[in-house]
Every structure is written in C-alpha cells, then in structure tokens.
C-alpha cells in the first residue's frame, strides 16, 4: 500500500509538469514576447491555485483557484462546480450566463463528457456587447469518478480555448488526485494506529486488573496508584485523535506501562530509563515506542528464566534524537526476525515492530528505518533516529472526550515524565 501511494505521488508530480509544459505551449505569444515570461507567469498562477485544492474540492478551494485561473487564462470567466454540477465558484464577467450554464454543467457531469456551449444559442439581453462568445465545460474525473467540472467562458471561439480548458482541467484533476492521496495516507496512518492499539493484548489488561485486585487488601495505596497508571495508560493509548506526539508524552506512557509490568513481574523485571531533557520536545509518530517496549517485555524478558532488564535511552545526536530500547532477554536469530518483519502483514509475527518500522519510513524516509541488533540468548537492541524537525510533523492535541475527565482523578491529567540531565548514553551491545 505504501509503495502504491509513493508511485501515485510520483505520477501526479510528473503529470503536473507535463500539463504545465503543454499549457505554456498553448499560451506562448505567436509573434513576440518572452517564452520565459510566459513560463514564469504560468508557474506563478498554477502555484497559487494549487494549495487549497490539495485539501479537496471545497467552496474555499474553488474560490481561490478560479481567481488565479482567470488571471492565467485571461478569459471572460471561470467557474468550478461540485460532483452534482452545483456551482461552487464563479469569477469574471458575463455573470448573467452562469445560470444559463447550470443545466449544461449538470448534464456534462452526469454524462462525464465535455460540453461546448455557443453564446448564440443562449438568450442574452446584451447580444451585441456581451463579452461571452463560447463556454467549455470539462468534467473533473478522478479514478473514473466525476468530482466536479471546470467551466471556461471565452471571448472568442477557438480550438485553443478548448485545449486550454482541457489542460487546466487535467491540472485540477491532478491536484484533487493528490488531495485524495494525502487523505489515503492519513487513513493508512490511522489504520496503522488502530492496528497498534489492537496489539495491546487482552491478556495485559486482564493481568493488570488481576495484579491490582491482588493488592487491594494488602497494599491499597499501591493498588490505587496502579489503577491510576492503568487509567492514564489506556486513555492515552486509545485517544481518538493525533498522528504525532512529543517524545515526553510517549515516554510518560512508557513509564506507566513499565510501572504496571513491574508490579506484575516484581523482581523478574528491572527497568532503566535515561532521558536527556533536550530531546523531550522532539515530535515522533504516536504510539511509536510502547509496542517496542512491550515487545522487549513479552518476547525478551518474560521468556527468560530469572527475568532481566529493559532499558530505554534517549539522547541528543546533533540534528536528531537517538532513542534506544534494549533488553537482555532471550533474543532471537536475526535472519528469522527480518523474515518475520518482511511477512508480518501475512503471518502476524512481530506486527508491532514491523508496523513501527513501516511508519518511521513512511513519515521520515527509508533512511529512518529501525536498526535492530539481536542474537539468540543475547537480547535485542532497537535504535530509532528521529529528526528534531521535519516538515509537516508536529504534535497533535489529544481529543479526549468529556467522559475521560472522570479519569483524571484528584491529581489531574497525566504529566510528562520528569527526568534529570544525564551524560551521553554509551554505545550498547546486546549480550555483552
């Protein structure tokens, strides 16, 4: 799926460049003038018309696009309709005729065919002075479905106007296709988060409640604290919005998870946290760390006789933050792990780790894939490199429902994990 989205994005950009080239050929002066000026003007107008369309075909996007396309085409008027043929925006002259073009627009959308309307076939009170001579209506078709229509009203009847309308319609379709691509990427990211939430094992929930229940009589204060940690953990993990979070928020959630697991495994599970304060504000994909820590506990420490230690380190690395999740558990054969990660979508093995690896590559690029070191009986070490700044990546405010306010308790909402300044984290080698 991710590869398909990347290919579609490349095709969209390539098609935009081709449309621009064809449009410049159509609009360049025949006798004099600079082709370079025409290119620059076309690029400027198209660049101004494109951004709003990347959010979909709305009235605001149509209003923004029509005014720039009108200036670029230097025609009488430009209109854009929705998928039902209803006019979203109209800019230019001959305003009395957009009513006359309403029915032809609906018909062009319904039939998915371009329409060519002559002014002489319309009733007009300004027959001699009306600037309109012809109108071209081009359906905007994306993935075989009509999403709207472009209406170009011209002062002359020429084949060049029809070709220009076709090319501009193609450009609009590309932008709307890219808008759908962006939405598909968002939906994919949300689906991956839902998959990660599904990985929160029902056994973990059952075992947590069982642990809390066992402490109610013997240590009620500890039971109350664990119950609050569990409430905060579930509220954060199942929040309804947000694709990104700060590293501080992610680490706070890990702290709650490990506190609960330590109460369950007792002396069999040891934890080391070493977090540099300067990287706490770094933005990471939501739920990017908890599945890796859970993997260390469940598949590394829980299967090792006598238990072991899970370590979480985060420190500054120039323009990046370096995050290391390590355990000294049972480990596994590296070749087998890589095969499991490659086929995780088919087998279900290590879905959490495979999901995180895929999300890091999708958000930041292939060079930010997980670095995994493991061997049988030598534990596992997973390293994440996260850029301190990346375009389009910013923390989202959680959209907790009003019902969740009851979960805050007397202490209020969960606070970021307090940390102290630490020296640089040394290089670690599993099993050493």
From TrEMBL:
Chain segments carrying region Disordered: 395-432
GO molecular function (one): kinase activity
Protein keywords: Coiled coil, Kinase, Transferase
Biased composition (Pro residues): 411-432
Keyword Coiled coil listed: yes
Compositionally biased tracts (Acidic residues): 399-408
Domain of life: Bacteria
Domain Histidine kinase/HSP90-like ATPase: residue ranges: 280-388
InterPro entries named in the record: Bact_2-comp_sensor_kinase, HATPase_C_sf, HATPase_dom, Sig_transdc_His_kin_internal
Any coiled-coil regions, as ranges: 174-201
SUPFAM superfamilies: ATPase domain of HSP90 chaperone/DNA topoisomerase II/histidine kinase, GAF domain-like
Full protein name: Histidine kinase
Lineage: Bacteria, Bacillati, Actinomycetota, Actinomycetes, Pseudonocardiales
